[in-house]
Each structure stands twice: as structure tokens, then as C-alpha cells.
Write a structure and sequence with these properties.
341 residues, disordered N terminus, alpha/beta, globular, Metallo-beta-lactamase, Chain A, 9-stranded mixed sheet
């Protein structure tokens, strides 16, 4: 009898450490918004630990942005990045590639294809990028294409100036906010070429349109809303008013928005107002206090990751469950808030 009890305890012990056991709880889809001082570097970690980094921040600054990305990757338990997605070729998005690959192994680089902007600075950014990834795997994604993940779905909504032409499932109805739409100028910069994506995990939906500008945004939103609603809206173009068209933002009906602004970059009052007043929005989180916007156009300090111009580069983390519930954490003060579906 004692032998049977010992065997039972042994088997129970194996189950307890995970040998054939059902995991406790459901794994989360984790999203880290790395502070790259008004650029973008958003790290997505799927429940199976496969990863995507959207953009790489700025070049220079003694490798500041690449180091911050590597630090957050280590916090996430990663030793390599499976995919680095470059939304477009402006320095605050693609500039950190060269320094990043000195710190982290990358599986595949993903982008929208060749640069189209005539600016000499952007031509150089693109040339430096191609040189840096010359020995790496490289993939160009167009609209309605994606990446092979098991637990999450990664879908391209915009790429190289093209947009999805058919509404996503459940979308396509008339957008009641389109009567507020203003005409927008044609944008010949790389912003309008941005690779914009929708990522889903069960019922959780996150959208990131890079720096897509208003004319393209309006084409996605009017007269019919092509995307549907989202839980998490990555505020487009760091919160500049050249982007964040009201019919798009309000039509998405986000529950939470996160703005990857810097102390003096992005976070313009007009765009801030559009996002902050979006119907149904529960909170707008900011990577930085926008020093030039004034107190009336910044959120509560609890949900701002960095308050000072010379900061430590704290991140914001989102942990999403497939039922649509998610928690947002401010790494500066460990304040977190859960948003139930």
C-alpha cells in the first residue's frame, strides 16, 4: 500500500511540473511598446513564444534604441526575433536595424517593397537597410497576406500604397462618422506606403497602421468601414494630426489606445482629442508625457510610461487573452489595469 502511495505521489509530482499536465490558465499574447523616443518599436510575443518586432527605432544615440529593444526582448524571454516588420523607411522606424542585428538574431525581415520617396535621407535609410539585411531572409508582404503563426493571425491591411479592397468579415457597413470627413492631400512620402496590420488572438484585435496618413485612412473608413472594431488601437503616426482621421478612429471604436509619442514628437492636440474622445474608448495610454501639448492634452500620469524628457525609457506591456480581456502595465510604476470583454 505504501508503495502505491509513493508511486501516486511520484506521478502527481510529474504532472505538477508539467509532464502531460493541462497548463494553468490560458497563455497570453503579449505586446511590448518599447520607448524609442518618438519612433516605433513594438514587440509582439505569441503564446507559443514566436515573435514579431514592428520597427526598430532610430539609428545612433550609441545604440540606445537597439539596446532598449534587446532589454525588453530579454524580459520577454526571447533570444531571437522571428520576424522584424518594417512599416516604412523613415529613420525613426528603420534606422535601428543595423544596431539591432548586432544585439539580437533575426529570422526574417519583412517590408512593403522598394522605397518610393525622393528624399535623399530616405534613400540613404533604405540603402543602409538593404545593406544590413543582405545576408538575412527577406519577405515583401502585400495586402491580404500574412505571416505563418499558430495562435495569432497577422493580416496586412495596407502596403506600398495599396489597401484591402474587400471588407473584413463582419465589416463593410456604412460608417456614420464619414460626414465629418475632410478632404486630405495626396502624400508622396513613405508614410503613405506604410505596411499596416491587424493582429488577432481569439476575440482580441489590435491594429497598427504605421504612419499611414489621412487620405489612405479615409479610404479604409469611408463610405464603408472596411476593418470592423478593435480592442487596441496603436495611435497612428505617433499621434500627429496628418494621421488619425476621425472617421477611421471612431469607426474602429477602440477600447484602448496606446500612443508611441516622444517628449517633443507626436501627441499633437488635434490627434490627441480625436483619439481621446473616440466613442467607447476606456483609456489612452502614452509612452511619453507630450511636453509641447500642455496638461489638457496629456492623460493621467499613472498611464504615461515616461514623464521626463531625459527618461529611463520605460515600456508599456499589454497581455491579451483569447476571450478579448487584456491587461495593460506601465513599467515605470507597475500600475496596471484590466479591460474585461
Amino acid at each position: 500500500m505504501r508503495l502505491k502511495q509513493l508511486l501516486a505521489l511520484f506521478v502527481f509530482g510529474l504532472i505538477g511540473i508539467g509532464w502531460g499536465a493541462t497548463p494553468k490558465g490560458t497563455p497570453t499574447f503579449d505586446i511590448y511598446f518599447v520607448d524609442v523616443e518618438g519612433g516605433q518599436a513594438t514587440l509582439l510575443v505569441a503564446p507559443d513564444n514566436k515573435s514579431i518586432l514592428i520597427d526598430t527605432g532610430w539609428p545612433g544615440f550609441s545604440g540606445r534604441d537597439a539596446s532598449r529593444i534587446a532589454e525588453v526582448a530579454a524580459i520577454a524571454g526571447l533570444k531571437r526575433i522571428d520576424y522584424v516588420v518594417i512599416t516604412h523607411y523613415h529613420a525613426d522606424h528603420v534606422g535601428g536595424v543595423t544596431q539591432l542585428i548586432e544585439r539580437l538574431s533575426v529570422g526574417t525581415f519583412v517590408d512593403h517593397g522598394p522605397n518610393v520617396e525622393a528624399s535623399e535621407d530616405v534613400k540613404k535609410n533604405y540603402a543602409d537597410y538593404l545593406k544590413a539585411i543582405a545576408k538575412s531572409q527577406h519577405l515583401v508582404l502585400k495586402t491580404d497576406q500574412g505571416l505563418p503563426f499558430t495562435d495569432i493571425t497577422f493580416r496586412v491591411l495596407a502596403s506600398a500604397g495599396e489597401l484591402i479592397t474587400n471588407p473584413l468579415p463582419g465589416a463593410g457597413t456604412a460608417n456614420k462618422y464619414c460626414d465629418t470627413a475632410q478632404s486630405a492631400p495626396v502624400d508622396t512620402t513613405e508614410n503613405a506606403q506604410s505596411l499596416g496590420i491587424l493582429v488577432t488572438y481569439g476575440k482580441f484585435r489590435m491594429i497598427d497602421l504605421g504612419d499611414l496618413t489621412k487620405k489612405k485612412e479615409l479610404a479604409l473608413a469611408c463610405p464603408n468601414q472596411m476593418i470592423g472594431t478593435v480592442d487596441l488601437y496603436v495611435v497612428t503616426h505617433h499621434g500627429f494630426d496628418q494621421s488619425n482621421a476621425k472617421p477611421l478612429v471612431w469607426g474602429l471604436h477602440p477600447r484602448v489606445a496606446i500612443m508611441d509619442n516622444g517628449p517633443h514628437k507626436g501627441g499633437s492636440p488635434e490627434a490627441w482629442e480625436t483619439v481621446h474622445s473616440s466613442p467607447g474608448l476606456e483609456d489612452l495610454w502614452q509612452l511619453h508625457y507630450a511636453l509641447d501639448a500642455g496638461q489638457d492634452h496629456n492623460v493621467s500620469a499613472d498611464i504615461i510610461a515616461n514623464l521626463d524628457e531625459n527618461c529611463q525609457g520605460k515600456y508599456i506591456k499589454v497581455s491579451a487573452s483569447p476571450d478579448g480581456t487584456f491587461t495593460v502595465l506601465n513599467a515605470r510604476n507597475n500600475y496596471k489595469k484590466t479591460y474585461a470583454k
